[in-house]
Design brief:
single chain, about 150 residues, mainly alpha, 2 domains, about 5% strand
């Protein structure tokens, strides 16, 4: 898919404008729309995944897209831990539309996870298979969950 096609697919999924989502009542799209976008994300890899993430960033930046759609994308980006979108979200934070809900809370949530102080994670002594003792950071609940997913 091209960048433009990904952007259209993202917005269509979150607005319920796909063939599968048109039959779902508007009040249920808050469940189905993000699910369709996550399915698209899981189907991509490599350069296609990079293109999809860039398209997500462009939709977040696009002021023509409704604020609830942009906020939902920021929440999804936070859940997927898409660090490459952090500069875009930080720039958006300083613009007037970001002062209003739902963008304000979505941006705050995204940046709160990005700004967590990982230096406060305790270090554990571990013994490697070759018998050498070393230290490593304990996994946060979020990274441990990612590894098991």
């Amino acid at each position: 898919m091209t960048d433009k096609e990904y952007r259209r697919a993202i917005v269509d999924a979150l607005e319920g404008q796909t063939d599968q989502l048109r039959t779902i009542p508007r009040e249920r799209l808050d469940w189905a729309g993000p699910g369709a976008l996550l399915a698209l994300y899981r189907k991509t890899s490599g350069n296609d995944r990079v293109a999809l993430v860039r398209a997500i960033g462009k939709v977040i930046e696009d002021h023509a897209v409704r604020a609830p759609i942009r906020a939902e994308l920021i929440q999804i980006a936070s859940s997927l831990d898409l660090a490459e979108l952090e500069p875009i979200v930080r720039r958006l934070r300083d613009k007037p539309p970001a002062a209003e809900e739902p963008l304000r809370s979505a941006i705050a949530n995204f940046l709160a996870f990005r700004d967590l102080d990982t230096s406060s994670i305790p270090r554990l002594s571990v013994e490697s298979p070759n018998g050498k003792v070393g230290t490593r950071k304990a996994r946060t609940a979020r990274s441990a969950k990612r590894r098991t997913a």
